[in-house]
Amino acid sequence: MKSLLIIDVQNGFLNGQDKLVEDTVKLAKLFKDNNDLVIAMKHIEENENDPIYFESDGANIPDKILENVDEVIEKRYPISFKETNLDDVLKSHNIKELYITGFNMEFCILFTSISAADRGYEVTVIEDLCGTVNGEDAYEMPGLDIVDFLGTVMDWSGVMENKYLEELEFSKDL
């Protein structure tokens, strides 16, 4: 069985990335139509100055995504498995394949993907449904496309796959 893991697609990260939300909703509906599990991870921050401070609208997951989610799991670390029940939920549904989308590619997506692969899940990161709030200036690397660079590294690892939405066999109808 498959699961779609939507990591930290929260208002404080989106900054007008409507297409990412719309495409994530379409994919989540496809997973639901196939009776596959859809999980949203919600990062909780206790720092009032953080864009996803837990008491702010920035921490909220858009309703159109929530409508297509089976379970929301809160997390406090970049690794979605750390101090959460994610692994238990996946095992209880006999999940073997994990498809990952969301924010931030260089933190939560990367660390969760590695942790999932280490736990024996077959991991696919859907690059065009991943984003970051950082850019080339954050890492002092002019011209760096963080999402594409990390997607390439993950794919080259041979441990996990990096795909674009149109490359997924089951998403041809989107």
From TrEMBL:
Signal peptide: none annotated. One of its GO terms (molecular function) is hydrolase activity. The keyword Transmembrane helix does not apply. Keywords: Hydrolase. This is Nicotinamidase-related amidase. Residues 4-142 form the Isochorismatase-like domain. It holds the Pfam family Isochorismatase. The keyword Zinc does not apply. The lineage of its organism: Bacteria, Bacillati, Bacillota, Bacilli, Bacillales. Belongs to the isochorismatase family.
